[in-house]
Design the sequence.
């Protein structure tokens, strides 16, 4: 009669030890995979936020609405804040046109910020919103801050206008062929005409997931460059 032989205690201990080692290695691999997935998803989310912000920038410029005696160009740059009068995209409850928005963009405490007024239908309301946007860009009150949105971290931003067939400082006189890659404070000369194009340059910190400089050009929809 054959006697069946089972596993010895030593053999069982060795098998359990091997399974524990394999389980530990498998868990470390799974943990690393999950961490990589989370990091990738965070990068995707940050990139999506930046794309949304730049799309809003383009939308504001595409909807620029000049208003004589307030802003003939539909926008004004003072070296710190860009203010824009634009068509409102929301509609009133009765289906009527909501009128205009005043929006403003600035950088404060290394954050890019956007301010938007309530829709306005009268010239007096528009003038008040225009003044509020200027105040918000310089020294915002609590009421002004309630209309702002924090967009994305920034190290720096620059604007350059395309006028007179050349890229120029936004604060220089219109038609001046002196080009500039930086902005300065001071006079708002030459801002009575909407530029043919606007070049935006933003320097992004590592926290945005897209570190470095991004350049985005906006071209006036009805611009036709016939010069050679």
Sequence:
């Amino acid at each position: 009669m054959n006697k069946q032989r089972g596993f010895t205690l030593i053999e069982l201990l060795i098998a359990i030890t091997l399974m524990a080692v394999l389980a530990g290695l498998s868990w470390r691999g799974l943990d690393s995979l999950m961490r990589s997935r989370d990091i990738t998803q965070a990068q995707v989310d940050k990139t999506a936020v930046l794309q949304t912000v730049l799309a809003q920038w383009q939308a504001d410029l595409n909807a620029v609405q000049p208003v004589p005696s307030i802003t003939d160009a539909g926008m004004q740059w003072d070296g710190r804040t860009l203010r824009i009068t634009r068509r409102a995209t929301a509609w009133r409850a009765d289906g009527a046109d909501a009128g205009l928005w005043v929006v403003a963009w600035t950088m404060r405490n290394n954050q890019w910020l956007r301010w938007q007024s309530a829709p306005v239908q009268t010239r007096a309301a528009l003038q008040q919103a225009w003044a509020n946007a200027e105040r918000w860009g310089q020294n915002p009150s609590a009421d002004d801050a309630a209309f702002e949105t924090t967009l994305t971290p920034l190290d720096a931003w620059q604007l350059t206008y395309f006028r007179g067939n050349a890229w120029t400082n936004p604060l220089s006189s219109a038609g001046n062929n002196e080009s500039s890659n930086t902005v300065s404070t001071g006079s708002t000369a030459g801002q009575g005409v909407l530029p043919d194009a606007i070049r935006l340059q933003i320097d992004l910190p590592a926290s945005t997931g897209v570190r470095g400089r991004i350049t985005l050009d906006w071209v006036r929809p009805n611009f036709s460059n016939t010069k050679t």
